[in-house]
Amino acid sequence: MTSSTIPQSGIVNEDLPRALYRKIAWRLLPIASICYAVAIIDRVNIGFAKLQMSADIGLSAAAYGLGAGIFFLAYVLFEVPSNMILERIGAKIWIARIMITWGAVTILTGFVQNTEQFYGARILLGIAEAGFYPGMVYFLAQWFPRKRLAQALALLVVAGPMGSIFVGPLSGWIMTSFAGTADMAGWQWLFIIQGAPAIIMGVVFYFVVSSTPKDARWLTDTEKSVLFRSLTTADKAEPAFKRFKQAATNKRVWILGFILAANYIGIYAVIFWIPSILKSTGVTDVAAVGILSSIPWVAAVAATILVGIYCDKSQAHRRILVIGMVIAAAGLVISVSTGNQTVATLTGISMAAAFFTATGPIIWAITNLQLNGMAAAAAGIALINTVGSIGSFLGPYVMGLGQDWTGNTVAPLLVIAGVAVIGAIVALTLKAPAATPAAAGNLEPGTVPLEPTAGSKQ
Question: Number of structural domains, the chain?
Answer without folding.
Answer: 2
